[in-house]
Amino acid sequence: MNGLGNQIIVADLRGTAARVSPQAAIAINARPETRFDQIMAIHDPRTPGTAHHIEIINSDGTLAQACGNGMRCVVQALSAEKGRQRFTFETLAGIIFGEEAEDGQISVDMGTPKFAWYDIPLNEEFADTRQVELQIGPIDAPVLHSPSVASMGNPHATFWVKDDVWSYALDRFGPLLENHPLFPERCNISIANVVNAERIILRTWERGAGLTQACGTAACAALVNGARTRRTGRKAVVTVPGGDLVVDWLDNDHVVLTGPAEREWAGRLDPATGAWTRSEAA
Ligand SMILES: N[C@H](CCC[C@H](N)C(=O)O)C(=O)O
């Protein structure tokens, strides 16, 4: 599947104890037909009141706590199977809700953002995470500097720029910033241009997956960081390379992400080795 071009594999592991191994993830990603950004593995529930446990695996084999675009894909797949309803999921980032609307758009309640330095986490104490000391490029003329940081369950840094987000070599700076010592659990790195209070243009270098066409949690982080630095309102369209997402930071502090999901094709997958066969066209 894909969520605005964010390449997602939904792996149905209900009724089994199997998990997608890091080796399998790396092997699957090495094949051009199955290159992906995240695998969303659907497992039986572990907590009463939730319908499914979702494990999220990056293309480098590491686990992610949250994935907004992938959650929309999961909601679409389950809606196709069970009919439209509100689904309740458990992830490493907590309890997430998702629902498909009549028009096919899918909204996911991603929970509440966190801003304390130890929640992101950062390796250094910052009283105010709306702007933290971090820069790349010449010391007196940094290319990117002073990001806002936030946790949407997973760590995000939003670098604000006034010019074209495509004029920055995110493929070069992304890996350096992702692995900067300030971030003990690494970080998803975004460049944001605020067009107006209701629109942000965003590119993201994802932790564990690299440059992607879309990153839902990064869109959420950009919006909450935009709102708390008074760059935007609490609801905005976030334009990512793959298209438009809508992010709404509700009064109850929950962040709701809305956008499309698209089924591509299906097959059978061995979660231990990553071996697969294609069995069904879209
Ligand atoms: N594509 C995802 C984000 C994956 C985050 C992952 N790269 C990490 O935190 O390690 C999204 O739509 O939110």
Automatic annotation (TrEMBL):
It catalyses: (2S,6S)-2,6-diaminopimelate = meso-2,6-diaminopimelate. It is an enzyme of class 5 (isomerase). Pathway: Amino-acid biosynthesis; L-lysine biosynthesis via DAP pathway; DL-2,6-diaminopimelate from LL-2,6-diaminopimelate: step 1/1. GO terms for biological process: lysine biosynthetic process via diaminopimelate. One of its GO terms (cellular component) is cytosol. GO terms for molecular function: diaminopimelate epimerase activity. The record marks H156, E206 as: Could be important to modulate the pK values of the two catalytic cysteine residues. It holds the Pfam family DAP_epimerase. It is found in: Cytoplasm. The active site is at C67, C215. Its EC number is 5.1.1.7. Belongs to the diaminopimelate epimerase family. Homodimer. This is Diaminopimelate epimerase. The lineage of its organism: Bacteria, Pseudomonadati, Pseudomonadota, Alphaproteobacteria, Hyphomicrobiales.
